[in-house]
Amino acid sequence: MRRSVLCFALSVISAVSWAQGAREKVIIDTDIGDDVDDAFALALAVKSPELDVLGVTTTFGETELRAQIVDRFLEAVGRPDIPVMAGNPTGKTPMSQRRYAEEGKFTRRSHGDAADFILDQVRKHPGDVTLIAIGPLMNVGAAIDRDAETFKKLKRVVIMGGSVRKGYGDYGYNEHFPPMPEWNILNDVASAQKLFASGVPLYVMPLDSTQLKLDEVKRAFLFTRGTAVTDQLAILYHLWAQETPTLFDPMTLAFVLKPELCPVTPLHIRVDEKGYTREEPGTPNAQVCLSSNPEVFFQFYLRRVGESQK
C-alpha cells in the first residue's frame, strides 16, 4: 500500500515537473502606454498557461511610468509575481494611459535595469528564453552592447516590427500601400541593425501581417466578459480615447503560442539608415510572417482572452 502511494506521488511530481518544463520561457519587452495594443498583448500572455513569463521590461520614453502601468495591470489580474524592469528613459512623450499608472495603488517608483535583467535570465536559462519585443528596440540594443555572447544564447527573438511588402493602411483588400519605416524600427534604427546582424534566431511580425482591427463587435464581446483581464483592457482602451485598435503586438504572442497563425518565410532583411526593412538577396537572417488570416487570429485571441476565470 505504502509503495503504491509513493509511486503515485512520484508520478504526480514527475507530471508537474514535466508540465513546468514544457512551458515556454518568455520575456516581454514593451512600450505599453501609447498605443493600446501592448496591453492586449500582455493580456494574451497572462491568459496563456503555456507561457512562463520570466519578466516584463519597458522601453522608449518614460520607461518608469510604463513599468508602473505594467505593475498595476499585473496586480489587478492576479500576477504580481511577474518581475517588471525598466529600460533607460529617452525623454518625455505623450502617453494616453498615463493616468492608469499615476492612480495605481500597487505601482513601484523604481525598477531594475531591463537590459541587465534580460541578460541575467539568459545566463540562468541558456538556450531556453524567447525574447518578445513589441516596442522600439532600445533594450535589445543595450543588451547586445553589454554582452553580445550572452545575447546569442537566447532561444530566439520574436518582434513586431518592420514593413516588408506592405505599409500602414494596406489591409490586403484595399489599395496597395508600399513599404515604409515602421514605428518600432524607426525609433531605434541602430538597435534594429544590431539585432538583424546578431545571429540570434529572429522571427519578425511586420505590418504585412499585423494590421488586425479590433472592431466594435469584437470589443463589445471582450469588454462585457467581466473578468479581471478584460476589465483592465476596457479601462486602458477608454484611456486611449480612440475608436478601433489595431492589434499589431498581440500577433507576436499568438505566433509563440500557435505558429500556424502567422506562417513564416526565410528572408534576408537589411535595415537601412532611414528605418526601412528591405528584402534583399542573401543568406536569410530572419523568419518573416508576410501574411495572416485575421478571422482565424481573432477566433483564437477572443476565445483565449475572453474566457472566464478558472
A few lines on this structure:
This protein has 310 residues and is α/β, with parallel strands linked by helices.
Give an overview of the whole structure:
The protein is of the alpha/beta class and 310 residues long. It has one domain (23-306): Inosine-uridine Nucleoside N-ribohydrolase, Chain A (Alpha-Beta Complex), CATH 3.90.245. It has 14 helices and 10 strands. The protein has a 10-stranded mixed β-sheet with strand order 4-3-2-1-5-6-7-10-8-9, sandwiched between helices. Helix 4 links the parallel strand 3 and strand 4 (112-113). Helix 2 (37-46) packs antiparallel against helix 12, helix 2 (37-46) runs parallel beside helix 13 (250-257) and helix 6 (138-146) packs across helix 9 (189-196). It is globular, with a radius of gyration of 19 Å. The protein starts with a helix and ends with a helix. Mean pLDDT is 93; it is low at 1-20.
CATH class: Alpha Beta
Biggest sheet overview: 10 strands, mixed
Q: What's the architecture, going by CATH?
A: Alpha-Beta Complex
Under CATH, the topology can be stated as Inosine-uridine Nucleoside N-ribohydrolase, Chain A
Q: What number of structural domains do the residues give? A: 1
* Large-scale geometry: globular
Number of strands: 10
How many angstroms separate the termini?
Answer: 34 Å
Bin the strand percentage. Answer: 15-25%
Task: Give the class from helix and strand content and strand pairing.
Answer: alpha/beta
Q: Which segments are poorly predicted (pLDDT under 50) over 5 or more consecutive residues? A: 1-20
Q: Measured on Cα atoms, how large is the radius of gyration?
A: 19 Å
Please give the count of helices: 14
Proportion of residues in helical segments: 40-55%
CATH superfamily, by name, is: Ribonucleoside hydrolase-like
Average of the residue pLDDT scores: 93
Instruction: Report the order of strands and helices.
Output: HEHEHEHEHEHHEHHEHHHHEEEH
